[in-house]
Description:
The protein is an alpha+beta fold. It has 2 domains: 2-76 and 153-222 and 315-382, 3-Layer(bba) Sandwich (FAD/NAD(P)-binding domain), CATH 3.50.50; 92-146 and 224-312, D-Amino Acid Oxidase, Chain A, domain 2 (2-Layer Sandwich). The chain has 11 helices and 20 strands. It has helices at residues 13-24, 41-44, 59-70, 72-76, 78-83, 99-114, 125-131, 153-166, 209-215, 281-294, 344-357, and strands at 2-9, 29-32, 48-49, 92-96, 120-123, 141-145, 149-150, 170-172, 177-183, 186-191, 194-203, 224-232, 242-245, 251-254, 260-262, 269-271, 276-278, 303-312, 320-323, 330-334. The strands form 4 sheets. Strands 1, 2, 8, 9, 10, 11, 19 and 20 form an 8-stranded mixed β-sheet that branches. A hairpin with a 2-residue loop joins strand 10 (186-191) and strand 11 (194-203). Helix 1 (13-24) runs parallel beside helix 8 and helix 1 crosses helix 11 (344-357). The longest helix has 16 residues, at 99-114. Bound molecules: flavin-adenine dinucleotide.
Amino acid sequence: MTRTDVIVIGGGLHGCCTALHLARRGLRPIVLEKNTVGRHASGVNAGGVRQLMRHTAEIPLSMAAMAAWETLAETLGPELAANCGFVGGVGQIGIAQSAQEMDWCHERVAEMHALGYDFEEVIDQEELRRLVPSVADICRGGLVSRRDGHANPFRTTQSFRRRAEQLGARILERTRVIGLEQGDGGWTVTTDNGVFRADIVVNCGGAWAWQAGAMVGEGFPKSHFASTLMVTSRMPHFIDPVVIGIDRVLSFKQTEAGTVVIGGGILGDPDLDEETAETVADRMMESAETVYEFFPILRKATIVRTWAGLEALMPDIIPVIGPSRVARGLWHAFGFSGHGFQLGPIVGSVLADLILDGESPIPLDAFSPSRFTAEGKLKPQAH
Ligand SMILES: Cc1cc2nc3c(=O)[nH]c(=O)nc-3n(C[C@H](O)[C@H](O)[C@H](O)COP(=O)(O)OP(=O)(O)OC[C@H]3O[C@@H](n4cnc5c(N)ncnc54)[C@H](O)[C@@H]3O)c2cc1C
């Protein structure tokens, strides 16, 4: 039996970041990962670092995350920060093709201004063309968030892992949590690789996080989905910002190597039990067609690979971050519903504040685990 302060379930970006911040504050976290670090969503995502078009409840957290991306070297040191491949300030642009989409952009910016946020701007066709010269004439303008950018997801997760280890965290791969029990001596965490004791458990289990909830009788939605991506062979540099669709399924960015990573919400086939997900060729064709329509230059591209990743999906499309509603000393951070990479550098720091100080300067009420019923359904008032 191994005794420590904190067990973190899950070696994705959020688990590694949580371990890093807890270790930084003097605790001795052990991360238990059933596969390998970054094997799931955190290592295979599109790398979009996007404040643009977020759920309004997520904006304070997302803004704090953006500040954390821009100061990664303070958290990770210069080498590990550089390894993340973060490119900020190129902007993310939501492209509008129809008059209705342009109307929506104006309404969205008005709503943002009313809430006191000014980082989203409506752009007309001329500004869109200045930012993205290769865009097709059918695109009328859109919405831009100029500070946004992208990073390399696998290398980012590994950087957070390494820094956590440098600060004293232990990461155990191929270690699956199969039981959680609270007693007088704290938590007993049973795995297929030994038994651990800890005062605190943090559940960063991604698409499987509801299982840790179920181990203590705390219901959460079991829903998940497979998000897909494809990548082209190298192309001459033609775009800096990340572009996404408003009503259309579109998302892509060009990496420093020249490859273009294309995604945007096309679903694959998830298999939670087998812990894998597959792309579906016909659906990928649909995604490619929108990209060709908006960016004719990509007709010359060769798709070299497609893949899919598993992600937890909450009914209100925002994560669960906060203390368990049934047990003391258990904390949750999961359910990022397709947009948790950008939040990666901040959630662990917020959890460390909550666990050690009992509060966070960032408003988190919307993410409370208590918005769900005992059966794991969203409470009516939380809709
Ligand atoms: C294809 C794709 C594209 C995406 N693109 C973007 C994007 O551009 N921008 C953005 O912001 N977000 C994006 N996302 C979402 C983002 O990747 C996720 O929100 C984020 O990575 C979630 O991190 P996590 O640490 O919560 O989960 P994960 O990375 O899934 O990590 C959870 C880990 O917990 C482990 N685990 C679970 N249960 C147990 C257990 N019982 N015992 C031990 N280990 C356990 C799992 O094996 C897993 O490794 C995308 C997601 C996908 C799939």
